Amino acid sequence: MQTSKPPTPPPARTYSAVLTASRRITPPASREEVRHLAFKTGDLSFDGTLGNCIRVMAPGQLGNPWHTRLYSIMDLERRNDGTEFAICVRRCSYIDDFNGEEYQGVASNYLCDLRPDDSIQFAGPVGYPFVIPEDKTADILMLGMGTGIAPFRTLIRQIYEKIGGWQGRVRLFYGAKSPLEMLYMNDENNDLANYFDQPTFKAFQAVSPRPGLGAPVALDKALEQNAAEVWEMLKRPGTRVFVAGTGNMLAMVDRAMADLAGSAREWASVHAQLRSSGRWSEVLY
């Protein structure tokens, strides 16, 4: 049984936006439903930028007026009459620890069920943790799972479309349960293919060896297969490491990196240097 929680305090500044398009980006055969949602707000004071997050205010439960969740802004275009932006949402469910029953995720199902012309309330923008270095020779290593691809899609677009002339290596290691669920890298939607001809960009896919049995995504195997380059990047001054995805992926990343380093102690030392110098950033959910 779920228990009630104290009401969530209202955000300091809220906006409204209208849904202009809702597009499924996982193939129909996939068990995962992930949607690319486009909105437009007519409020000219909204000053969000690519990579910022917005705090969506879904209708609340158990006495709460709303249920809030953060989503990354993936596309954004300013016009004279407002701002158009897009977010990526996976329809979620969870198992209640007390009674073992499955419940729909409040915010994700609310958003996935929206139809064009429906409106939402949101707050923000909230800061973006993945800051592109000023040095175009810096290496960038991205590790993502699930909808963690959303901020990386934005990051890659900024590097090659807005900045341009990037000389450092840009490497994306992305994990999903199956090839069907490789967001923005599947038959339904393959946006990242636009950057495969960039000489400094490479993407490596990692899927579960037995998705039907719940086997974990083999992100560690993808890192192992590229061990020499990954370790060289981690040791190079100036390299930025960005991690985005589910909270349980950190343990997998730590084990994989310790294997690359030859010991947990050596990896802990390098990891500490990356963190202390501000070159390691993560967004987990």
Automatic annotation (TrEMBL):
GO terms for molecular function: oxidoreductase activity. Signal peptide: none annotated. Residues 12-132 form the FAD-binding FR-type domain. InterPro entries: FAD-bd_FR_type, Flavoprot_Pyr_Nucl_cyt_Rdtase, FNR, FNR_nucleotide-bd, OxRdtase_FAD/NAD-bd, Riboflavin_synthase-like_b-brl. Pfam families: NAD_binding_1. Gene3D superfamilies: Nucleotide-binding domain of ferredoxin-NADP reductase (FNR) module (3.40.50.80), Translation factors (2.40.30.10). This is Oxidoreductase FAD/NAD(P)-binding domain protein. The lineage of its organism: Bacteria, Pseudomonadati, Pseudomonadota, Betaproteobacteria, Nitrosomonadales.
